[in-house]
Amino acid sequence: MHDHRELGRELGLFGTDPLIGAGLPYWLPDGATLRHTLEEYIRDAERRAGYQHVYSPVLGKRELYELSGHWAHYADDMFPPMDVGGEQFVLRPSLCPHHALIYRSRSRSHRELPLRIAELGGMYRSELSGVLGGLTRVRAIQLNDAHIFCSLDQAAGESAAALELIRRAYADLGISAVRYRLSLPGPGGKYVSDPAMWERASALLTGVLDDSGVPYERAAGEAAFYGPKVDIQIADPAGRESTLSTVQIDLHQPARFGLRYTGPDGAPHRPVMVHRSVVGSMERLVAQLLETHGGAFPGWLAPVQIMVLPVTDAEAEYAERLVRRCTALGLRARSAGTDRGTLGARIRAARLVPYHLVIGGREAADGLASLRLRDGRRPGPLPVDEVLERVAERVGARSAELWEPVPVG
Fold first, then answer.
1. How far apart are CA 172 and CA 209, in angstroms?
2. Cβ-based burial of 111 (10 A; exposed 0-12, middle 13-18, buried ≥19)
3. What's the pLDDT score for residue 273?
């Protein structure tokens, strides 16, 4: 079993400091590289799916969250208000109120719908110290979030498309869902009191799941305070489950914010708000990737993709030139010279790096590289240009395979 906290320390990805505070990890250079790569991946996937990206502030007035319903139903998980110039500001616990305001910043027509607004944004949860741990439970969260504003008859199709986006992302990242959960309201005052709204939203999501063909379970008491949701559950090596991705149908906040669009009939209509997170928070995603892959990330995702290993000091200058060539091609490469120990020790230290290029006297003289793959394969000495071209092709395609033999015949 792999523990993401131990791997994070070993690989130099992230850390914590009591002067910063519990549940507030910082990201080291290789961890930041990993995060940047994930963020670029999800933004690209969202752009291709018709999303427009926005930025919104991590603060908002208390009145904003009173209007959205968070203050009445979610205040226990929020940080206390800050008094600034006679006004109270709150660190946001979610991005949806900000996106609702972006939607209503001007009048909207039915021709604009569905309007898909996405953001990789910060939010904050006032978690108790006893539940904090590594990257899986934190107080500062960078969330891959989006809100789709659409007509009622578009809501099911948009929810189904979001589930498909999640499925493709999991395949690219090499992670698996352990189960799908339809999270419904339970007893008590935690939820908005509107039975008709809950019935309609729950029926929509039930239909989406039934049509998708994925097995799912119903879970009372796990819904968001404003609506039902599909939770895609993952598990750590000990079998503990958590939610990574969600799709939610919200009929509550559009009414609270007075959202409108002009329909084909020229009359005002209320949009539906579909909340959707493809890969959840960057923190929980990285934790899951670490534990799933044991630090041996897919080649396109690895913080260091190529380790160049000169056999002797005589090849050190050639190795550095090779690193610069890799960088120019968009590949992440480093060299490890003889000051790091024997060749065998350097290979072992770089065991999680996908590609090792061993450079001896012959390779340096003839423009070759002795290629070793992380999985133990040795395609052999090959021209450097060919190696880099093929690695760049694998990385660019976000392939799970490190290498493909050249077809014969």
1. 22
2. exposed
3. 97
pLDDT at residue 408, rounded to an integer: 46
Euclidean distance between CA atoms 8 and 134, whole angstroms: 9
Cα 325 to its chain centre, rounded Å, is 30
Cis ω before 93 (30° cut-off from 0): no
Task: Calculate the alpha carbon distances from 273 to 70, 257, 285, 334 in Å.
Answer: 16, 11, 25, 46
| Rounded distance between C-alpha atoms, residue 190 and residue 288, angstroms | 29
E strands within 47-195?
52-53, 59-61, 82-84, 87-91, 115-124, 140-150, 179-184
Q: Which residues of the chain have pLDDT under 70?
A: 405-409
Predicted pLDDT of residue 239: 86
* Contact partners, residue 377, CB within 8 Å, separation at least 6: 402, 403
Beta-strand (E) ranges in 28-178? 52-53, 59-61, 82-84, 87-91, 115-124, 140-150
Let me know the angle formed at the C-alpha of 110 by 108 and 115, rounded to the nearest 5 degrees: 70
CA dist 267 and 107 (Å) reads: 12
Helix (H) or strand (E) holding 307: strand 306-310
Q: How far is CA 3 from CA 48, 150, 246, 299, in A?
A: 34, 41, 24, 21
- DSSP one-letter string for 312-349: SGGGHHHHHHHHHHHHHTT--EEE--GGG--HHHHHHH
Beta bridge partners of 218: 182
Taking the C-alpha atoms of residue 172 and residue 235, their distance in angstroms, rounded to an integer, is 18
- Determine the number of helices (DSSP H) and then strands (DSSP E) in the chain: 13, 20
Which DSSP letter does residue 110 get? G
Please state, in angstroms and rounded to a whole number, the distance separating the CA atoms of residues 206 and 204.
6
3-state secondary structure of 46: helix
Strand pairing class (216-220; 179-184): parallel
pTM of the model: 0.93
**Amino acid identity at 91:** L
Hey, what are 9's tokens?
């320390």
d(CA 283, CA 286): 5
